[in-house]
Amino acid sequence: MAKTKEVEKWTVMSVVAAAVIILKAATVAAEPQVPCFYIFGDSLIDNGNNNDKLTIAKVNFLPYGIDFPLGPTGRFSNGKTIADLIAEFLGFEDFIQPYATARGNQILRGINYASAAGGIRPETGRHWGERISFDGQLRNFNNTVAQLAAILGNEGAASHYLGKCIFFSALGNNDFLNNYLNTKFYDTSRRYTLPQYISLLIKQYTSQLKVLYDHGARKVALVGTSPLGCIPFTIALRSKDGKCIEGSNRASQMFNVQLRANVDVFNRIFPGAQFILVDGYNPINDILINYEAYGFKVKDKACCGRSSTICFPNDVKCPNRSEYVYWDFAHPTEAACKLIARRVYAAQKPSDAYPFDISRLARL
Ligand SMILES: *[C@@H]1O[C@H](CO)[C@@H](O)[C@H](O)[C@H]1NC(C)=O
Ligand SMILES: *[C@@H]1O[C@H](CO)[C@@H](O)[C@H](O)[C@H]1NC(C)=O
């Protein structure tokens, strides 16, 4: 009797021990591929940084976030953004916090600095109201670095830590849409030819990216601009036949060609760093071209709102959000974001990433 009890006790204990080992293994397996993920960009990935700003470019109300676990947060989508999904692919269990609300040790995991209407140039997006340009996002990042130095002991430790993180910068769309291509509010198209303007953008972007490098960033993924001529906004306002505006698409592609040519330059002038360029154009464009094959029914109109401006609180939304490529006037539905993010994270064609993709950048 006593012996059986003893055996039972040991059996229970070894089962518990095994369970603890399994749990530990699960926790280890759940560690993200990189310890931290810092995100810079515009409304495509803003996750709430504009909520307290004086601007029309903020969306912390329903139906935005209708499919998001936390409801409306300021994300310009019905659900997750491309940045949320890439964080998931990298193995992060929690969402990366917006700079506006990130506190304490959360900042060790990463921060999202993206701001709707923001761009490489400081005046970009001005007509929407307050926004955080890339310069402003970098000032905020500088504050984070000071906080990291306080947590980790000193600036050297912070810099060493940042070398292990992935930096993700998706800027430039607004420098066209809400600057060069918007001749009503901006005079850049009268001051510069398109090639001149693109050279200026690349030059400014380069000196801005140096701030990241100087603080220790070594793994940097840049994302190119998207097919701006095909978003519902452009089609609603400029297209007479419902087709994409080719001039806007060409401007975006010219920028991407220049940015790609500069990746080698970045890797030379920023020694020890690995910059990559992820194609921000074709993963969306391919969906637009073959939208039915991808399971969509509508590619050129917003699911919510009038396509020409943001979706407002009482706007009627489409009955089935996964049938639309675009959620609102300029931002893809979660259904489309899932397809795009998968390809942004892990290339499906050689042209998807140069010289290689984010999944490989994470393993360096
Ligand atoms: C951020 O910090 C770097 C390095 O300390 C400095 O060169 C840069 O001017 C700062 N940028 C801003 C926007 O404060
Ligand atoms: C919504 O659309 C998707 C894609 O066409 C389809 O698979 C799904 O069944 C639809 N859902 C409803 C509720 O109609």
Sheet/helix structural class? alpha/beta
What does the radius of gyration come to?
A: 22 Å
Helix count, per DSSP?
12
Written as H for each helix and E for each strand, in order along the chain, the element string is HEHHHEHHHEHHEHEEHEH
CATH architecture type: 3-Layer(aba) Sandwich
CATH topology: Rossmann fold
Q: State the end-to-end distance.
A: 59 Å
Mean pLDDT over the full residue set = 93
| Beta-strand content bin | 5-15%
- Overall shape: it is globular
Number of domains: 1
Q: How many β strands by DSSP?
A: 7
**Strand order across the largest sheet:** 1-2-3-4-7
Pfam families: Lipase_GDSL (PF00657)
GO molecular function: hydrolase activity
Subcellular location: Secreted
Family: Belongs to the 'GDSL' lipolytic enzyme family.
Q: How would you describe the overall organization of this protein?
A:
- The chain is of the alpha/beta class.
- The protein has one domain (38-363): Rossmann fold.
- It is 42% helix and 8% strand.
- The chain contains twelve helices and seven strands.
- The strands form two sheets. The chain has a five-stranded mixed beta sheet. A two-stranded parallel sheet has the order 5-6.
- Helix 2 (82-89) packs across helix 11, helix 3 crosses helix 4 (155-162) and helix 7 packs parallel to helix 9 (246-269).
- The longest helix is centred in the first third of the chain and has 28 residues, at 2-29.
- The chain is globular and about 60 Å long.
- The N and C termini lie far apart (59 Å).
- The structure holds 2-acetamido-2-deoxy-beta-D-glucopyranose (2 copies).
- Residues 295, 320, 322-323 line the site of one 2-acetamido-2-deoxy-beta-D-glucopyranose.
